[in-house]
Amino acid sequence: MTSTIKGLVKSETKYDGSDLRIAIVHARWNKSIIDSLVTGAVNKLKEAGVKESNIVIETVPGSFELPLACSRMISGSHIQVGSSVTDLLGGLNFGGPTSPKATSRTGTPAPAAALSNQPFDAVIAIGVLIKGETMHFEYICESVSHALMKIQLDTGVPVIFGVLTALSDDQALERSGLGRNGKPGHNHGEDWGLAAVEMGSHVRRWGEGKFAST
């Protein structure tokens, strides 16, 4: 087959990710494929203007752990709002109420590469599931899919579904740009990076009551 109708149509809008903060949480099963997908996602995030300091990457053992990780990372990013290392250190007094007041450090300039503490605008969940000889594949695929969808609906934060559900090693390799026999395929991590920027931008705009027709 030389052509296909499948694939993501490139958006006509160029989205600016310079103000966005994006999280990537990935499993470690099938590591070589995972590494390629994460790299593809990060490259596209940067191409869209997302600052490296605003890309947070965490890892969990397997795909079954992705929903909990995404949920807690979204919650944690909201806890970070309004706090920073320098703020937390400023005014600390270890000597008790009668001791001289410690010198405040809130005026200490933050390092040039200080991380942002704004909430995540989107989370990319990356995993690779390859069908084996038992029902394990089906159970994990269904559970993870439903859980990730529920998280984005409950939190209002886009969760990009970056979980490959392949029937064979070759299918997974081709979808991570590592295909064999002269057929490298396409790295879907790139699509997930672009989707995160687009959805993060949309949700910000929608949250301000702004829509394409207005």
Please describe the structure with a list of short key phrases separated by commas or semicolons.
Rossmann fold; 214 residues; alpha/beta; 39% helix; 4-stranded parallel sheet; globular
Write structural notes for this entry.
- The chain is α/β, with parallel strands linked by helices.
- The chain has one domain: 3-Layer(aba) Sandwich (Rossmann fold).
- It is built from 6 helices and 4 strands.
- The chain has helices spanning about 30-45, 65-80, 85-90, 135-155, 170-175, 190-205; strands spanning about 20-25, 55-60, 120-130, 160-165.
- It has a 4-stranded parallel beta sheet, with helices on both faces.
- It is globular and about 50 Å long.
- The model is unreliable at about 85-115 (pLDDT under 50).
How does the SSE layout of this entry go?
Blueprint: E1 22-26, H1 31-47, E2 55-59, H2 66-80, H3 85-89, E3 122-130, H4 136-155, E4 159-166, H5 169-174, H6 188-207
Parallel strand pairs: 1-2, 1-3, 3-4
Helix pairs in contact: 1-6, 2-4
